[in-house]
Write a structure and sequence with these properties.
By secondary structure, the chain is of the alpha/beta class. 56% of the residues lie in helices and 12% in strands. It contains 14 helices and 11 strands. Helix 2 links the parallel strand 4 and strand 5. Helix 8 packs across helix 10 (254-277) and helix 13 (347-359) runs antiparallel to helix 14 (363-393). The protein starts with a strand and ends with a helix.
Length: 394
């Protein structure tokens, strides 16, 4: 049984010149977030029902298609019905409705008709009234047969409202919404929801360097949110700066190289936050996410090679052992974060740890400190992981 989504995108909003679907939300539009949420719930195709195609809606749909979200545009219920089979499962998403990601799967689960509800006293217009105690939360699960039947008898009635009423008349189960839901109609509706979305994009601070750089990353993410800059482009900048930092160290320009490496540290965090805001998956496996640590490792080896002339080949050995221990640490902590993981060695923190040694012109001592920090982190993580494993066996 296939799963599709049907999104209404034709109601005018309270903001002049905007459909509900084209209201700006977290740097993009409401319809883009709706389509991404539906696609993340396994819906293919994502059918968008429109009556007219203003420039903002056309641009949003083009962005979705460029990013390979499986959207299909229809102009009537009959055209929508042609996109699905009678036994398909369809997620009906209300015009302007933003529902937490986990609710899509919950409503779509099973085979019966489901309707997401919110309490009547806490919600007013534009949440459609279902009965004396509940209103529609903007999400429902129907089958293709009901859509086909409704398309045949629709006439001049509003598709969204008619389909919802027929779903309720067919005995749909009411599911109380878990978490905040919103049907957006004005700028006042957008502000609180946008703050929640931006906060959720943080993704957690996994290290002390993430914590230190967090305010800077959040500020730049908000600044770039409405821009056309894509996360891969920001990642490209991070990789380029890291590579140029390694080249500068090779040329003996220690301070210039370190400054470039420092400047690169917040960029991958900004790219990741922006990707989460725009619900763009796979950011961890983007090509630049491999080049940034690769160029950083090259910078460490190049620095050790430059220092070896004055301090002996032991500098190169220190750098190689540091990288080996850092790799081993990543393997140890891949499945489970040990106690104290916030303080363990990682790329961003190690770059910033070199700064005080650079100020004191003690580059060799800085390299030795990085080795000691990485070794201590590895042996601590190994001890924690294996002691936890022994405890589970006992």
């Amino acid at each position: 049984m296939a799963r599709a989504a049907l999104i209404a995108a034709y109601h005018e909003s309270a903001e002049p010149g905007h459909l509900r679907a084209t209201l700006p939300l977290a740097g993009r539009t409401v319809i883009e977030r709706q389509a991404r949420l539906a696609a993340s719930a396994g819906c293919n195709p994502v059918i968008i029902l429109v009556e007219r195609m203003p420039a903002a809606l056309s641009a949003a749909i083009q962005r979705l298609r460029r990013e390979r979200v499986p959207v299909e545009i229809v102009r009537s219920a009959a055209e929508a019905a042609e996109q699905v089979e009678p036994d398909d499962r369809i997620l009906l998403i209300g015009d302007g409705a933003i529902v937490p990601a986990g609710q899509h799967g919950r409503v779509a689960a099973g085979e019966e008709l489901n309707v997401l509800t919110v309490p009547d006293g806490a919600y007013g217009e534009p949440y459609e009234r279902i009965d004396a105690d509940a209103r529609w939360g903007g999400l429902a699960a129907i089958d293709g047969a009901l859509l086909h039947e409704t398309a045949e008898m629709l006439g001049d009635w509003d598709m969204q409202s008619t389909l919802l009423r027929r779903t309720l008349q067919a005995g749909a189960r009411h599911l109380a919404a878990e978490g905040a839901v919103a049907i957006l109609d004005s700028e006042a509706d957008l502000s609180a929801l946008e703050r929640r979305i931006v906060a959720q994009a943080d993704g957690g601070e996994r290290s002390w360097a993430d914590w230190a750089l967090g305010p800077l990353e959040r500020s730049f993410t908000r600044l770039l949110m409405p821009s056309a800059l894509s996360p891969p482009l920001i990642g490209l900048a991070a990789a380029t700066l890291s590579g140029l930092g390694a080249v500068s160290l090779y040329l003996g320009w220690y301070w210039i190289g370190l400054i470039k490496l420092l400047a690169a540290t917040p960029l991958d965090g900004i790219a990741a936050r922006l990707a989460r805001l725009r619900m763009q998956d796979g950011i961890r496996h983007s090509w630049w996410s491999y080049f940034v640590p690769l160029f950083s490792a090259a910078a460490l080896l190049i620095l050790s090679h430059r220092l070896a002339a004055a301090h002996g080949w032991g500098m190169i050995l220190l750098a190689c052992m540091t990288l080996a221990l850092l790799f081993a640490l990543a393997v140890e902590t891949e499945r489970e974060r040990p106690r104290g993981a916030f303080l363990l060695a990682e790329r961003k923190g190690m770059v910033w740890l070199m700064l005080p040694f650079a100020i004191a012109d003690m580059w060799a001592a800085g390299l030795a400190t990085l080795f000691a920090y990485t070794a201590a982190s590895f042996f601590w993580a190994q001890s924690e992981v294996h002691s936890a494993a022994r405890g589970d066996q006992d």
